Amino acid sequence: MKPKFGVIVFPGSNCDYDAFYSVKKVLGFDAEFLWHKEKDLKGCDVIILPGGFSYGDYLRTGAIAKFSPILEKVVSFAENGGIVFGICNGFQILLETGLLPGVMIQNESLKFVCKDIYLKVENKDTLFTKGIKKETIKIPIKHGEGNYYTDEVTLKEMITNHQIIFTYSSSDGTVSKKYNPNGSLKNIAGISNKRKNVMGMMPHPENACDPILRKTDGALIFKSIAKHFN
Amino acid sequence: MFKATVIVKRRPKILDPQGKAVEQGAKLLGFNNVKQTRIGKYIEFFVETDDLKAAEKEVKEYSEKLLSNPIMEDFEFTLVEVNSPKTEVKIARD
Predict the structure, then answer these.
(1) Do A105 and B72 touch (CB under 8 A)?
(2) pTM
């Protein structure tokens, strides 16, 4: 079965078309846009919360988006085991809704970072990462608030439950402060919930799918998700 | 009717890169006694009720659910009755 991806569009989303393009035109899966005011997920099998600046990042990143009518549906979809994937601002929204633990604060450097980075795949036993054979993948980041933080108790729980999915690393998988672009706790770049059906990551896999960009590691994530429906 | 003012502060343990950067500016200007700059948010609005308890409840919930993120922020608020400014309550979240 070919899964249908639903890309949610908030006022201020700016990577929604990138996600739609990569999933539909590059990888050939079904995809549909879902406006934030809708209350129906239109039979989508996977929900993507895209990057951008929903509601202008006012108050806190993702703080207002979490009250969008469609989010209520996304939360119950996720609670029933549906697959939800938040990228960048989408990750921030997932943190605000509480579907994922922790918060995001401004980059330690206070600078907006835009570059290709390497990610160590910390957990390959999830539907998001099963198809990744390599130790590290190269994917771009572009954010000003990617400094992940959570309290010690939650961090311990996340480690025990293997919820840390990606960490910032060198090309050969060394995880250290040197390779941390934003000051995030333990170099965390992507995490999942306990059940592993909801994942959020700051890097942009949708910007590393089309071979014309000379990097295609992002496609591995979308292909993994799709494989789950085979 | 009450006028509410809410102050949202980042928890002391949590890094405040903005405060840190502003303090660097203070040093450049020669304000060498300035220490531990932290930047928060000030939010004001009116609450349309004459019942103080109801106003308190509403502002508290609003602060918890939207204005602050309890994982990293604390808040405190003040309510002043619009027509009799003597009635004032100050509430800080523990």
Answers:
(1) yes
(2) 0.90
- Closest by Cβ to A110, choosing from B21, B71, B72: B21
Q: What one-character-per-residue DSSP string does A88-153 give?
A: THHHHHHHHHTSS-SEEE--TT-S-EEEEEEEEE---SSTTTTT--SSEEEEEEEES--EEE--HH
A220, A137 contact by CB (below 8 A): yes
Q: Residue B69: which of A60, A107, A151 has the nearest Cβ?
A: A60
**Residue A149 near residue A105, CB atoms below 8 Å:** yes
> Across-strand partners of A113?
A143
Tell me the domain boundaries of chain A: 4-227
Chain segment A158-216, per-residue pLDDT in tens = 999 999 999 999 999 999 999 999 999 999 999 999 999 999 999 999 999 999 999 99
> How many Å apart are CA A133 and CA B11, to the nearest integer?
41
Map residue A212 onto helix, strand or coil: helix
What is the tens place of the pLDDT at every residue in B56-94? 999 999 999 999 999 999 999 999 998 766 666 777 664
The C-alpha atoms of residue A73 and residue A43 are separated, in whole angstroms, by: 12
Q: Report how far residue A134's alpha carbon sits from residue A115's, in angstroms, rounded to the nearest whole number.
A: 20
**Helices A69-79 and A89-97 sit at what angle, rounded to 10 degrees?**
70
What dotted CATH number matches A4-227?
3.40.50.880
pLDDT of B13 above 90:
no
Q: Point out the residues of A that are catalytic.
A: 88, 204, 206
Q: Which structure tokens are listed for B48?
A: 């349309």
The sheet carrying A198-201 orders its strands as A30-35, A4-9, A46-49, A83-87, A198-201, A188-192, A164-169, A113-121, A136-143
